UniProtKB/TrEMBL annotation:
This is Lysine--tRNA ligase. Its EC number is 6.1.1.6. Homodimer. Signal peptide: none annotated. HAMAP family: Lys_tRNA_synth_class2. One of its GO terms (biological process) is lysyl-tRNA aminoacylation. It comes from the Bacteria. Mg(2+) 2 binds at E478. Keywords: Aminoacyl-tRNA synthetase, ATP-binding, Cytoplasm, Ligase, Magnesium, Metal-binding, Nucleotide-binding, Protein biosynthesis. The keyword Ribosomal protein does not apply. NCBIfam families: lysS_bact (TIGR00499), PRK00484.1 (NF001756).
């Protein structure tokens, strides 16, 4: 006797009609029992209509709806007839796209060819006209072609089975000659057909726009129904390929760094935590790969980059997601000026590679120009100008800056939100964001940040209390950041200790002290420039979409959560 499988039972909550709750295991077993009952009826000789239970008297309201039951019955009918609803292979000799490319505009209405092709696609439309059926098949990229199935060509029994078994959404294989119909529609006049994969779930109405809930919870439906969603997936892939080519052109080496880390660092962010049973060890999901990529510089890999998944346990909005993709790169003997030039090239080349121009058309129809030279501005100078008073960086005892108390008074007067754990740098950044963050429309490098908020950045070569860091803003949001990287292990330890004290005071975004990284810096890291840019945000900049629309499978809260 086998041991029962231990399964976590997640409760499915009651619906609006007060249907009793079931565990996921109980409901899955219910659906299996219903599938088996439908199949048994078909095997016993029932018709399709006789096999389904429109009222769900036997299995209740949480069982399959009638449409799904009917498709399950058709699957059972295929098995009874010796037809595989999910065949391993079919005689596919070409693609819908290739047939279109070869014959579009070349055939007159009613003209036929001797070119026999076997293609497969998803059924989006069926029209039965007695002894002739018309089917619209779609390739994955949305390219469509018409298939024609004639009783004279395939036989009465085959056409009857087609009408009985094929539904919208099925993957269908057809093989036949390429022709133009009497109305001039490019078509495949079928000699044979087969279901390549039987769809048990019906498609949504394809001529209606998908709601946001369906698009995010069932992105595979969005890819079928919405050309914009398919294009986003393809454009994202093109963008990543473009970035890799540009890095390769500059002799950067791509590496992979750990997603599970014993110490979280590389950015100011709240991490996700997990536990490794084998070592009985609490771990953090990566918030940034920076400290490991810098170890590569120590090891002699002078130009290194990574396209990576990062995880930050923070808020969700139009430009923030808890799981996202970043590209980070580090260049030995570079600085924040050289890395700014690289980022500009990366963004502009990506726009050209994906859309053919540095002027892109956003989803709302407006154009956005990423070409030419980009603006620069100083954080402290621009904040002083906006306030009408000079804000001085906090350069230590010899160069005292504007006090925390004064900055706090200004923030309160303006109604700027304040943190529980405050310092000069945080207040300066909050005040600057109040005036500028969502107002920088054209591409702009904002330079020279407070030292308190930039623990991994080298001090400015001539401005006390400021570090050599920039943030790149486009269309009112931050797209990328770049540094002259801190490589002095003594100063880095000072910065880590200051962060650790902030963490003890309640700052959940402060970095931990990473002794292994400090030891690596002690071996010697060359001067370097570094950058980080969100791939999702790059797509936002190029398309005008929200972050959820750029992520193929965005995280959403479960309906039963």
């Amino acid at each position: 006797m086998t041991e029962p499988i231990a399964t976590e039972e997640i409760t499915v909550e009651e619906d609006a009609n007060g249907v009793p709750a079931m565990t996921t295991v109980e409901r899955a077993q219910l659906l299996l029992d219903q599938d088996a009952a439908i199949t048994a009826r078909i095997q016993e000789g029932a018709t399709l209509d006789e096999a389904v239970d429109p009222s769900n008297k036997e299995f209740g309201p949480q069982a399959h709806p009638e449409q799904v039951q009917m498709r399950v019955a058709k699957r059972a009918m295929m098995l009874k007839e010796g037809l595989n609803p999910y065949p391993v292979t079919l005689d596919v000799t070409g693609t819908i796209e290739a047939v279109r490319a070869k014959y579009d505009g070349t055939l007159e209405a009613g003209q036929e060819t001797d070119d026999v092709v076997g293609v497969a696609g998803r059924v989006l439309f069926i029209r039965n006209a007695g002894g002739l059926c018309f089917v619209q098949l779609a390739a994955g990229d949305g390219t469509t072609i018409q298939a024609m199935l004639s009783k004279k060509q395939i036989g009465a029994d085959s056409l009857k089975l087609f009408k009985q078994l094929v539904d919208l959404g099925d993957h269908l294989f057809v093989k036949g000659r390429v022709i133009a119909s009497k109305t001039g529609e490019l078509s495949i006049f079928a000699d044979e057909w087969a279901i390549a994969a039987k769809a048990l779930q019906p498609l949504p109405t394809l001529h209606k726009e998908l709601n946001e809930d369906t698009r995010t919870r069932k992105p595979y439906i969005g890819m079928i129904a919405d050309e914009k969603i398919r294009n986003m997936v393809r454009n994202r892939s093109k963008a990543v390929s473009s970035l890799r080519r540009t890095f390769d052109d500059h002799d950067f080496l791509e590496v992979e760094t750990p997603m599970l880390q014993t110490v979280h660092g590389g950015a100011a962010a709240r991490p996700f935590t997990t536990h490794m049973n084998a070592f009985d060890l609490d771990l953090y999901l990566r918030i940034a790969p920076e400290l490991f990529l810098k170890r590569c510089l120590v090891g002699g890999i002078d130009r290194v980059f990574e396209i990576n998944r990062d995880f930050r346990n923070e808020g969700v909005d139009g430009t923030h997601a808890p799981e996202f993709t970043m590209v980070e790169a580090y260049e030995a003997y570079g600085n924040y000026d050289t890395i700014a030039a690289l980022v500009k090239e990366l963004v502009q080349k990506t726009a050209k590679d994906v859309f053919g121009s540095t002027t892109v058309t956003l989803l709302d129809g407006t154009e956005y120009d990423l070409g030419g030279e980009w603006k620069t501005m100083s954080m402290y100078d621009s904040l002083s100008e906006a306030l009408g008073q000079e804000i001085v960086p906090n350069g230590g005892p010899d160069h005292p800056g504007t006090s925390v108390e004064e900055l706090g008074r200004i923030a309160d007067k303006l109604g700027v939100e304040r943190d529980d754990v405050e310092n000069h740098g945080k207040l300066v950044e909050h005040l600057w964001e109040h005036f500028y963050e969502d107002k920088l429309y054209e591409p702009t490098f904002v330079r020279d940040f407070p030292v308190e908020t930039s623990p991994l950045v080298k001090a400015h070569r001539s401005k006390p209390g400021v570090v050599e860091k920039w943030d790149l803003y486009v269309r009112g949001f931050e797209l990328a950041t770049g540094y002259s990287e801190l490589n002095d292990p003594i100063v880095q330890r000072e910065r880590f200790v200051a962060q650790a004290k902030d963490a003890l005071a309640g700052d959940e975004e402060a970095c931990d002290i990473d002794e292994d990284f400090l030891e690596a810096l002690g071996v010697g890291m060359p001067p370097a420039g570094g950058m980080g840019m969100g791939i999702d945000r790059l797509l936002i900049a190029l398309t005008g979409a929200t972050i959820r629309e750029t992520i193929t499978f965005p995280l959403v809260k479960p309906l039963n959560g």
